[in-house]
Amino acid sequence: MQIRTRKLVGTLLLLGFLALYSALVVALAAGRIATAPPLAQFAFFLVAGLVWVVPAGFLIRWMTRPAQT
Fold first, then answer.
1. For residues 61 and 7, is the Cβ–Cβ distance under 8 A?
2. How many CA atoms lie within 13 A of 6 on its CB side?
3. How far is the C-alpha of 65 from the C-alpha of 7, rounded, in Å?
4. Which one of 46, 48, 59, 68 is least enclosed by Cβ atoms within 10 Å?
5. Distance between CA atoms of 16 and 7, rounded to whole angstroms?
6. Angstrom distance (rounded) from CA 48 to CA 54
7. String of b and e for 21-42 (b: at least 16 CB within 10 Å)?
């Protein structure tokens, strides 16, 4: 796959992943975390705000990998 095509596919996948991930976090936060103690809320949002970076990093690394012929 050419790098230009890989970047297009990766961008679309990243946008879709972030949309689904954010919807999941909002659903969890609205349901369970809203009644939790403030420290638990802080921990949840700290972790939820950073966890998405790992799969996004793998996807970005794949997108920028040189084309193999």
1. no
2. 13
3. 10
4. 68
5. 14
6. 11
7. eeeebeeeeeeebeeeeeeeee
Q: For the chain, first and last CA: distance in Å?
A: 9
- Smallest CA-to-CA distance from 56 within 29, 19, 4, 1 is with 19
* pLDDT value, residue 69: 63
Task: Give me the mean pLDDT over the 21-40 stretch.
Answer: 90
pTM of the model: 0.80
More reliable by pLDDT, 30 or 69: 30
At 35, phi and psi to the nearest 5? Answer: -100, 0
Q: What confidence tier does 19 reach under pLDDT thresholds 50, 70, 90?
A: very high
